[in-house]
Amino acid sequence: MKDETKGLCNYTLKELKKNGAEDVIISLETCTTSQIKFSNSRIVSMFQWDLKNAGIFASFSKRLVSTVLKEVSKKHIDETISKINKFINFCKENNDYNGIAKGPFRYRRIKKTHDEKIENLEDEGIDIVKQSIDIAKRKGIEKTAGLFETSSHKTFLLTSNDVEALDTGTEAQFSFRALKTKDSSGHFTSSARMLNNVDFESVCEEACEIANKSLNPGDGKQGKYDVLFHPMAFANLLDSFGNAASAFHVESGMSCLKDKIGKKVASSNVCIYDYGNLKNSPGTATFDAEGVPTRKTTMVKDGILKGYLHNTSTAKRFKTKTTANAGLIAPQPTTIAISEGKFDKEGLIGRIKKGIYVTNIWYTRFNNYTTGDFSTIPRDGIFLIENGKIKKPIKNIRISDNLLRMMQNISGTGNDSRIIQNWETEVPVLCPHVFVTGVNITKSI
Amino acid sequence: MNDIGNFAIKIAEQFGCSYAEARTESSEGNAFILKNGNPEVSGFEASEGIAVRLLKNKNLTFVSTNKLEKENIKWLIRKAVRRLDSSSRLSEKIELKNERVNKKNYKVRQKINVLDFSPKEKLDLLLEVEKSLDEIKKNIPARYFSIADSLTKKEIITSEGTMITSEIPRINFVYVLTMVNSQKSAQRYWQLGASSGMEILNKWKLEKKLKEESAALLRNLRQGRKTRPGAYDVVVAPEVAGIIAHESCGHPYEADRILGREAAQAGESFVKKDDIGNEMSSKNVSVVDYPAMEGSYGFYLYDDEGVLGKKKYLVKNGIMNEFLHNRETSAAMRMANNGSSRATSYEREAIVRMSNTFFVPGKTKEEELISEVKRGIYIKNFTEWNIDDKRLNQKYVGSEAYIIENGEITHPVINPTIEIDTIRLYASIDNVADNFELHAATCGKGEPMQGIPVTMGGPSIRLRRIKIT
After folding, report:
1. Domain B2-125+139-170, what fold?
2. Which residue among A360, A367, B49, B319 is least packed, with the fewest CB closer than 10 Å?
């Protein structure tokens, strides 16, 4: 961070205080990203982003305003402050607002968040994509699609409550879909902070294996099934669960966890965490949007909901402490993790008499967020399990069930957790295979 | 901005690009949230940036930045072109359809400029909506309203000489209502959107709309019966017809899906290139995508490649007629381009997107559609929905819905669910009404995800003998 830029952030903060602001947060982020997109086993486009973003949050007697600086220059800062002064006069008090975190804080260095290899990556990304496509060809799959994305970011945070902190990091994400025929495909992803932790080869191999095994699927039948979820699939549901734990969503009717603290919301075998300082996760940061050092928070212990995810303001409303999940409007999950069990995938399949193995889902939509009634569509390889063995591939089914009921019916988790981040799974999820009994399966007719 | 765009084109040409396109955008906007009667943080924002798309040796690359110093843009383009050279061995050879050079300047006229409407007036609007629900507030324990507006100035310059400048305001109102009665609950989450000045608020009549919808949902909770599963004639109102048109006609007719370009995430399509001319539905059925509808949320005149956005009959009189194309897909399929290339902002590549997608109205009154149903269901609006990634296996769950008995709407019914294959769905449509509504939506596609403003709609349509659960 240049001294001049830091100086301008300090200037902004002081000016806002001078103009009557009580709480001020200045957040300056820069991010460079490269993406290689491929489909039909050819690169279809290469992308480069180079972006900066300077955010301001300020409170004036419980009237709250946020804005973004188009450029960090004294002239523009003065114009923006003048606009804030006018804007805030029209705003009304938010009586629910309870301030921001009081610093200063001590930050621990989180391992495996910054990789110079990613920052200095040149043509190696193209080689990685080529090698991946070649692996698929060797496995008999001519058509593949996906992306390889790397990014490097820097966040400087300054608050009126004695926080001044800098966080830097890198990320790499690899998504690979193998399309054997129009009805048989496999998809897998890997996301990490360090390039060495993105296992390109195993991602390709697993996607190809699912595609190859799902050849000529028959139509699935509706009914109740025991379902084994691949990490790709269950991560999508845990993303919904993590969002439901945000105190903001609880208040705004977008959560099935309202009034559930101290109650059973999942199987007693299960613990669920928000893991803000998990090494190597794309969701990890040194501090949250108020500057509070990130941490591991137990959301569910032995099936019982222990609490929601909070920023300072929502925490005071719920008479508890922040969980370091600010979001200034809504607390947000960082990385969601579910406790592992002792079985591997084969061990879990072996426990299923009549069931389905779902390797991926998409289009998860809720009928009613407060009850948790929802449906989602399995895609890519789907397999019928009989007497502990995969019998045959199937297609055209839908999971139409209830999130809380499914969480309570978790009968086992695997010992093979992987970090999943995907199109619909926006929050990274550390997830193994998960076995859920009595899942309601429907289908289109 | 013109200066930066021209500079980017010049640099691209210096680096040997055969085609370059610069899209510069500046945008201003405001956003307000009211949660359970309390104003959350309000915001205003201004942003400015450039997207540059380059073609060299038939390989495509895209750069985006909001650091608009010329040296930075030059550095980014140089880096992108160098990587393009390295990737050439593995790259798809991309051609762009020849297009006429367009020069046009257009803007949406606003009677009340979105940026002149004061923050107080916007917040007061949300408070008035909240107040309008006072009488039944005890049955609506969670209420979330937001209003956001923006004014985007965009300039598209290509190395071929096209130059399009536009100025489009957009307004968006989102609401989530959680209704409870005894131990039962229901939710309504929906949005209204327009490319318009603030005068659109007079048309929206938000207080009346939300009051009526809340009362209907509450009545449904109190009196609604469970649906008895079986085959029914179903009349769906424009909101439901719209989501059908969008999900199982608009999306599968996107040519980039058909070509497999979005296969990794957004998926492919059950439609094949050679399907043009095949029957999809009855002769009564036509589905159109038309961006130039005045005031519509999906409005534009020229797409993000500077091509005129045409009126597209995706389905014409029951026959599969035309796909949604950009310059790349129309060249690949050797079909006419129809100007469907859109990006959500300078941070995203322009890809094939819908705009305003709808069933074309017929001549029959909605009442007549209903009067000809002996045993059926009328679905006014919906809640949960989804569809598979080839756009065949879809589900729509009714929110406000009623039983039809002997041609008359009689009794509210709870969550009638259509779960049907696209082929059967379109084959079941026997008539369309003469009413017409467009509903705003935010459509997701692309990597990274792009949620783009669209509308979807049409008249009420009747589906004969479909399974309801």
Report:
1. PmbA/TldD fold (3.30.2290)
2. B319
